[in-house]
Structure formats: structure tokens, C-alpha cells
Amino acid sequence: MNAFLDGCRAVVGPAHVLTSPGDLIAYVTDHRRRHIGAALAVVRPGNTEEVAAIVRLCQQHRVPIVPQGGNTGLVLGSVPDTSGNALVLSLTRLNRIRGIDTVNDTLIAEAGCILKNVQDAAADAGRLFPLSLASEGSCTIGGNLSSNAGGTAVLRYGNARELCLGLEVVTAEGEIWDGLRGLRKDNTGYDLRDLFIGAEGTLGIISAAVLKIYPRPRAQLTALAAVRNPAAALALLASAREHCGDTLTGFELMSEICLQLVQKHFPELHSPFSQRHPHYVLLELSDQESEQHASQLLETVIGNALEAGLIEDAVVATSMAQSAQLWKLREHISAAQAAEGKNIKHDIAVPISRIGDFIDTTDRLLAEAFPGCRLVTFGHLGDGNLHYNVSAPEGMPDDLFLARQAAVNRVVHDSVHRYDGSISAEHGLGALKREEILRYKSPVELRLQHAIKNALDPLNLMNPGKLI
Asked: Any stretches that span the bilayer, and where are they (predicted)?
């Protein structure tokens, strides 16, 4: 492989070809630190042409490629296996904002741009880029698109797919497809953009994207409501949609144990309620008219819900600081659960109307099969995506609990399937769920996906062992 590595050094410069174990470790370790792979090298190209040249070298020498952005994924999609044969292609040096068009309301960002930097670039131009994730300070646009990331604003703005108008992609042959067209209508054949979004780097490498940006809202208001059960939360969602329309941009569900864990591990974050409630809903309105208009809408929704008995209590943030504190309760759930111990995560989606029944049924099945397990349920109720996580009973060693992961997954995923849902809503399949999905996809769907993979990557060098 000396000739291959020498070729890589000639393309990107010796400083950007990493081969020592100390330099590689961060790139081959997954975000949750449960898997450490191995790599032939890490290569850090600085532009699209260098990406294409490296891909051509990989084709010539038959070297598998693992594209990587911020490496914040949870399904082993951006790290190599343990064979040591693959090249990790880090895209973090492709980090330029190529342009902003405030008339067309578009922004062109390279794949290595950190999401928070894209948000800030849009804000500097008086616009909003609405994709928002807990990892927005380290995840990258290329990774967001490759996994079709969701986040907290999908209810109003859609997933990453809906926020992208065009792509620049390096194909498996090392050619560059320039699809950076900021068009909202383009009916000229197969939609190649949608083919590469959500493909987890298995068909080609996204190097840049045309993203939608929006006028910044004149007001954002947040409220936290306590509800008896998910059915009441769904009724509140229906009422909020009826009264607020697209002004409703966030609607997050949290079970009581979520807040207990946050307050245990982050004692500076306090619940605004004097007593505990079974579930909570975090609502956010983003209004293009005025703060007064948004306040009237929110007061109407909360008032009607209290009168109808849909909610047991509610607090409305009266300042940006209070709003931020309410969101911190939601945003710190994952960190609090990690501090509590290892857990079994599920990123699932079911039709919104069936979420209440799904939670009731699956909670019962898990309690019967794994007595004492703790169900840390939270997520984007407004778009049907739940982070339905299972923690060990108090006092049970982590390793003993994780030994039951396959059995826990079977209960949860079979229940998801019965409710016409998906076992991966916004994190992708990666290597973690690649075999699991075979239980739930039809033979026809699997054949079609394999046909696409074989057509675009016949040598199976693009992120092999992931997704398909």
C-alpha cells in the first residue's frame, strides 16, 4: 500500500495523510465510545477536486472508503470496521460557505461546514437555517445530509432532505457531479439529489450543498406543559396545530424520568413545576408577525388546553433566558442518561396518531419482559419521532443489562413494526442496524436498494458494510 499512500500524499500533502495510531484513534472511535475500528490511513482533502482524486486512487488500488464528517453519529455509520483495510476520508477541511443568496433564500455550504457555523452564517445575512440538533456544535452538513438528520424543527421545516435544493457529489468512479442548482422546480429526470441524501456515503460523497434559508422570525416563544399521558399530548398537538398553523415549530415530548435524570446529573437545571407529572410537552412558536401575536396564540392554546383538561399545569417563558432554560431541560436528557449509565437507544418513528398506543403497549411489554427497566422516552412528537431509550434497573451493572440488548431491541422493533413504523427515524442504519432492518424490509424493497448500490458502486468501496 505504499504506492497508494504516496499517491494520497501527492494529492493532499503529507500533513493531511495520517497513519500513526495516535493520530488515527479519534477517527476510528465511534461517538458513544463503544466501537474502535482500524484504518489504513486518514486522508483530509481540502477541496472537491482533491476528494475526487483520492476516490480515483481508491478505485485504482481497491481501497474501501469511509467518508466522515463530525463523527457524531450513533449507528457506526462514519467509522471503519476492525479489518484495517479502509481509508477514512475526513471532510472537515471542506468548510467554506461558498455563497448566500437572500433573494433566492439559499446558502451554499461545503460538506465539512459545522452546522452551527451554517446557522451563524445565515443569521449574519438576516436569515434562518432551521436545522437544529444537540450536536450542532460539532456535526457537519455532509453528515447531516448523508443521514437525513431531523432535529427539533422538523414539524415546521422538515428533515435535512427538505432543506436541500441541490448537491455537489463525488461519485464512486471519482467524477464530480455538479448539481448545485438552487431550483425549487426542476422536472428533468430522476432526482439524483434525493438518491444521495440519506445514503450514508454508500453511493457517493457529498462535497457541497445548496440549502434553503428563511426569513428570521420576529418572535419565538416557548412553553412547557405538564400532561397525564401521551394521548393528552397528542390532543394538545392537534389543538396547537389548529390554532397556530406553521407558527408551531417545536413540539417535544418528555417523560418524567427524563427530567429526574437531568436534575440528578445537572442540578443547576430545575423543573419549573412544584410537583411531578407523568409527561411534559415543550412547545415553541416562531412568529413572523410580532411577539404580541405569538403571545396571543400561545395564551389561547394553553388556556383552551387547561379548560379542556388536556394539561395539568404550564409555564410560559417570558424572556429568552427563560426559554433557553426550558430547552436545556430537553437538550440535556441524552447527557444525563449517559451519566446515569449505559443504555439501549432506539430512534424510532410511528404515525403520529398511533404514538400514544405504541408507548402504552411497548412500555407494558418491556416491563413484563425486563422488570425494573427504566423507560426514558422523549423526542419530536410533532413528526412522530421518539427516542425510546431503555435504561437498566437501578443497581443492575451496565454489562449485565447490555447483554440483553438484542432481546430488548426485538421487543421494541417488533412493536414499531406492528404500528407501521420505522426502526430508524433520523440517525440512519449504519453498521449497527444493517442486519436488524432485514427483518422489516420487504424483499422487493431490498432488491431495489441493492440494484441501486450495484449500479452506482459496483466495486462496493463506498462505506462498505453500512446501510445495505
From this structure: none
Joined grid coordinates for residue 180:
448545485
C-alpha cell at position 273: 413545576
Task: Tell which phi-psi region holds residue 37, choosing left (phi > 0), alpha (psi between -120 and 50) or beta.
Answer: beta
What's the domain range around 80? 2-90
Phi, psi for residue 107 in degrees, rounded to 5: -140, 135
Q: Are 325 and 259 in contact (CB under 8 A)?
A: no
Give residue 383's pLDDT. 93
Q: Is 50 exposed, middle or buried (0-12, 13-18, 19+ CB in 10 A)?
A: buried
In a domain, 455, yes or no: no
Residue of 393, 395, 375, 286 whose CA lies nearest to 333: 375
The domain total for the chain is 4
pLDDT digits (tens, 9 = 90+) for 85-134: 999 999 999 999 999 999 999 999 999 999 999 999 999 999 999 999 88
Burial of 365 per CB tally in 10 Å (0-12, 13-18, 19+): middle
Per the DSSP assignment, residues forming a β-bridge with 215 are 127
CB burial of 98-129 (b: ≥16 within 10 Å; e: otherwise) equals eebeeeebbbbbbbbbbbbbbbebbeebebbb
